[in-house]
Write a structure and sequence with these properties.
Keywords: Hydrolase, Metal-binding, Nucleotide metabolism, Zinc. Belongs to the metallo-dependent hydrolases superfamily. Adenosine and AMP deaminases family. This protein is an alpha/beta fold. The chain has a single domain, classed as Alpha-Beta Barrel (TIM Barrel). It has a four-stranded parallel β-sheet, with helices on one face. A four-stranded parallel β-sheet has the order 5-6-7-8.
C-alpha cells in the first residue's frame, strides 16, 4: 500500500477515504495519520502532494504527520545518496521553496495546510556505532555507510524545522512540530534528545527505567502517546506497560493506535485500545476522559477544533480551562493536576535559589578570608 506505485496510489487513496468517511460518520473521533518521506530524491514531496490532491484525500477529521525513516545507511549503501546533507536537502528544500514561492509548488502548498508535523521512525533497538558530539562530522561530510545516531537525526530535523517555522510564521502560514517515536526500545539517551527537541513523543516505555527523566517529562508536561497493544506484540507485555503509573503520576499521556492493521481486530482500533485498557487496568471514567482530553491537547488540530472539543477556554491553566460539559473531566481532577505541578515547580525553583545563595555565600567567605590573610 503506497502513494507512489504503478496505479499511482489509487488503492491506498480509496482505503484512506473509507477511513475518513467512517470518522465523519462517527462524529466523535479525529485521526492523525502518517505518510512517509524518505529523503532519497528531491521530488518525493511533489509526488506525495500530487497523490493527495488528485485523489482528493482530505477530511476535516484527519490531519497528517510526515514520518521520516532513519534509513540513511541503506540509501548510502545503495549509492542513492552521496552524504547526509543530500538527504536533509531532499526532505526540507521543497518545503522552503513552497513556503517562499507557493506558486512554484501549488499542490505541495495545498497539501502542507493539512500537515501537523514530523515524526522520526525506525527500530530503536539497532546498535549505534557513533556518538553525536562536537567532533561528529557535519551532514555534508557524513559519507560513511554507518547510520548516524538517533540524536544526530533529531537535531538536524529540529534545526531545519526551526528555521522553516520562523519563515512560515513570517509568511502567515501554520508551523510544524516534531513528534518522534522515542523510548520504545534502545538506549535511554534517545529520551534525553527528545526531551530537549520534541513537542511530544510516541511510546516512551523506557521512562519507567529512568526516574529522573520521567520527572523531567512530568515537569515539562511533554505529551506521550502510548500504544499498549502494539507494545504487547513487539516489546513489552500488556501487564508490564507503565501507562497507568504515568497517568497516576500526572504525566501527559494518551492512548494511540500503532499499525492497526497488524495489531487490532475490529473496525474501531482506538476503541479497542480504550476498552482493553479500561478492563485490564480498571480505569475509572474520569481516567478515560482525562486520557481523551490529553489526546486532544497533544494533537495538531487547529485552535478552532480544539475549542469545539474542549471548550473556548481550554488554553487557561487549571480548572478555569476545563469545560466539564465537553471534557467530562471533573474540575477537582484538573485542579489537582495543576496545583501538584505548581508545587513541584516551586520546590525545584526554591532548591535552585537556595543552592545559588549558598554558592554566593561560600565565595564571599573565601574572598573575605583571602583579604584578611593578605592584611
Amino acid at each position: 500500500i503506497k502513494t507512489d506505485n504503478q496505479v499511482s496510489g489509487k488503492y491506498f487513496a480509496h482505503i484512506i477515504k473509507e477511513v475518513m468517511f467512517d470518522l465523519e460518520e462517527s462524529k466523535y473521533q479525529n485521526a492523525e495519520l502518517r505518510l512517509s518521506i524518505y529523503g532519497r530524491s528531491r521530488d518525493e514531496w511533489d509526488k506525495l502532494a500530487k497523490w493527495a490532491v488528485s485523489h482528493k484525500v482530505h477530511s476535516n477529521n484527519v490531519r497528517w504527520l510526515v514520518q521520516v525513516p532513519r534509513l540513511f545507511d541503506v540509501y548510502r549503501t545503495k549509492k542513492q545518496l552521496a552524504n547526509f546533507q543530500e538527504m536533509l536537502e531532499n526532505i526540507f528544500l521543497p518545503l522552503f521553496e513552497a513556503t517562499i514561492h507557493p506558486a512554484s509548488h501549488p499542490e505541495l502548498h495545498l497539501f502542507l495546510e493539512h500537515v501537523d508535523g514530523f515524526d522520526s521512525v525506525d527500530d530503536e533497538s539497532k546498535p549505534e556505532h557513533r556518538i553525536f558530539n562536537q567532533d561528529s562530522p557535519l551532514p555534508g561530510t557524513w559519507v560513511e555507510e554507518d547510520n548516524p545516531p538517533y540524536s544526530y537525526y533529531l537535531y538536524y530535523m529540529y534545526a531545519n524545522m526551526t528555521v522553516l517555522n520562523h519563515l512560515r510564521r513570517k509568511r502567515g502560514f501554520h508551523t510544524f512540530v516534531l513528534r518522534p517515536h522515542c523510548g520504545e526500545a534502545g538506549p535511554i539517551h534517545h529520551l534525553v534528545s527528545a526531551f530537549m527537541l520534541s513537542e511530544n513523543i510516541s511510546h516512551g516505555l523506557l521512562l519507567r527505567k529512568a526516574p529522573v527523566l520521567q520527572y523531567l517529562y512530568y515537569l515539562a508536561q511533554i505529551g506521550i502517546a502510548m500504544s499498549p497493544l502494539s507494545n504487547n506484540s513487539l516489546f513489552l507485555s500488556y501487564h508490564r506497560n507503565p501507562l497507568p503509573e504515568y497517568l497516576s503520576r500526572g504525566l501527559v499521556v494518551s492512548l494511540s493506535t500503532d499499525d492497526p492493521l497488524q495489531f487490532h481486530f475490529t473496525k474501531e482500533p482506538l476503541m479497542e485500545e480504550y476498552s482493553i485498557a479500561t478492563q485490564v487496568w480498571k480505569l475509572s471514567s474520569c481516567d478515560m476522559c482525562e486520557l481523551a482530553r490529553n489526546s486532544v491537547l497533544m494533537s495538531g488540530f487547529s485552535h478552532k477544533v480544539k475549542s469545539y472539543w474542549l471548550g473556548p477556554s481550554y488554553l487557561k491553566e487549571g480548572s478555569e480551562g476545563n469545560d466539564i460539559r465537553r471534557t467530562n473531566v471533573p474540575d477537582i481532577r484538573v485542579s489537582y493536576r495543576f496545583e501538584t505541578l505548581c508545587q513541584e515547580l516551586t520546590l525545584i525553583t526554591q532548591a535552585v535559589q537556595t543552592a545559588e545563595l549558598e554558592t554566593i555565600q561560600e565565595e564571599d567567605s573565601l574572598t573575605m578570608s583571602s583579604s584578611l590573610g593578605t592584611q
